[in-house]
Amino acid sequence: MVSIMNNPDDIDFIIRALGFSSALLSNRLDDIKSLLNDLSRNIISSSDMSEQLKIMTKRELILKQQKDFCAIWHASDGRYKTKVPTATGGKKLIARSTQENLENLIVEHYKKLEQKPAKPCMRSIYPEWLDFKSKETSYANACNLQSRWKRYFEKSTIVDIPFDKLTTGAIKKWCVDVISDMQLTDRQFKDLKSIMNMIFDYAVSFDIIQINLSRQVRGFSDKNFKQEKVKPVSELVYTTQAKHSVLSDAMQQFLKTQNTAYLAVCLNFTLGLRVGELVALRTSHINDDGTISIKQEEVKTYFKDDAGKFHRNGYEIVDHTKTLSGNRRLVLTPKAKKYIDMALKYNCSHGLKDDDFIFLDKNGNRLHDHAINNVLRRLNGVRNEKDAFIINDRPSGNHSIRRTTISEIHDAMVVSEDTLKTFAGHKDISTTQKCYIHQVKDITEYADQFAKVLDS
Questions:
Q1: How, if at all, do strands 310-318 and 328-331 pair?
Q2: pLDDT at 240 over 80
């Protein structure tokens, strides 16, 4: 037996004599030697050895099949990757840190494909649907969908019921139970329902099911939903007094801390930008006609791990804004020019530079959205970073500045609705009117106007 284990030709003869392909198992000689050694020491029986050779042969056949379908490559991120076939006829990217781990995953994947497939359900469709959405839209959107799935569906029972066993009645009953148990608002339920609708749409598109029952489930009473707390106007926009207080405090804090995020806050009371647009401003965006072009924004970046889950991992600047209508030119008022000039002078005097971005930190790196939000917390009275962001009777976040600026322009009645819509970066004036226009002055400040109209 010892001579057999040391002679590859004899091992080849034994493999062929047992009915296995020696060519297929040629790269498993060390493993076969180990089996023969165990056999000679009576640790395993000949039937055990035959069974192990069957497993090895099956593995090598799968890896050969996969090689013909798509090769394995060593990617730039250090991981080994390949694409495997899916049950619906598509391709799925998989990755592992070592080639051995990836090969193990390939074998398990093919074994699952060969098994008698369980009847499709929402849970079985979800991973492939999420991967598709990440490519159709973005990793950011996929991360958002993943979060909603985890909250509403991951531990539910309905996602394991085969599609062909579901009825509109069963779906509606489950929805009503979830609304009640989780105390969902109408907006939260729409988030839940959109996930279900899209997964059913995906199943229909691959002929897994013929009808989207989820979209036929409707007619929920408003009484089922938890009523959302309506915020007072004082928490949505800055009153004239609150605005002046924030601007004054921001300027004092900049002079004290030299943190240009305070200047960015002041500037945004003249521009009403989204926070991602604000931190993406560059000197090259400033035009000779006294305007500034809004055409870039900061977005969060994401990556997908080996398990197919999405995670945040940083920021990047993209050459577009939130919507196609977001690309616009805005007038730089004298105060706006003053705040920008102060930021640029600070950068120059301290030798700070990050391309031509306007707002930099003390290390010369471009500010991120959290820098703006942090100083707004302090300006709104928060001193402990662990405290809640929202303070009663005070606006919170950059969006309140945006709403305030848009509301002030509307209140002044000096521009057309079309110009106001363009200023806001909206496609439709109805979006501006519905979500961004609020009363920024106390009603007593309109006393003369009311008297002029009502007492005439």
A1: unpaired
A2: yes
